[in-house]
Each structure stands twice: as C-alpha cells, then as structure tokens.
Design goal:
Number of domains: 1
Organism: Thermosporothrix sp. COM3
Pfam families: adh_short
Largest sheet: 3 strands, parallel
InterPro entries: NAD(P)-bd_dom_sf, SDR_fam
Strand order of the largest sheet: 1-2-3
Protein name: Ketoreductase (KR) domain-containing protein
Length: 60
C-alpha cells in the first residue's frame, strides 16, 4: 500500500473493535504512527499483535 500517511500520528479511542480498528488498519497500512486505546485488554492485545511495532497500544 502507498505510504500515504508517513510522518502522521493518530490517536484512536475505541480502536480495538469496529470502525476504530478498521481505521487503525488503514492508517497503519499507510505508514502512520497509531496509538490505540480500548477498555478490553484481550482485544487490545490482539490489535497489538496484529500491528506489531507499527503501533502503540494502551489499556485504560
């Protein structure tokens, strides 16, 4: 995919499911730095594993 978001940073609240997760996938695929937040640690860990070092995940 095109590196359309290189140098861009995004914070996605509720980024572990649904539209937030899909948005995160698009941004990460476009080379953005993405910070995800979510309440469900299981979903957050799944997102962390999917994105690897391409994102930062935090549970609140």
């Amino acid at each position: 995919m095109e590196e359309k978001y290189t140098g861009k940073k995004a914070v996605i609240i509720g980024g572990t499911i649904g539209m937030g997760l899909e948005t995160a996938r698009l941004l990460v695929a476009g080379s953005a730095e993405v910070l995800l937040t979510g309440r469900n640690e299981v979903n957050l860990e799944a997102a962390r594993q999917e994105f690897g070092s391409k994102s930062t995940c935090s549970a609140f």
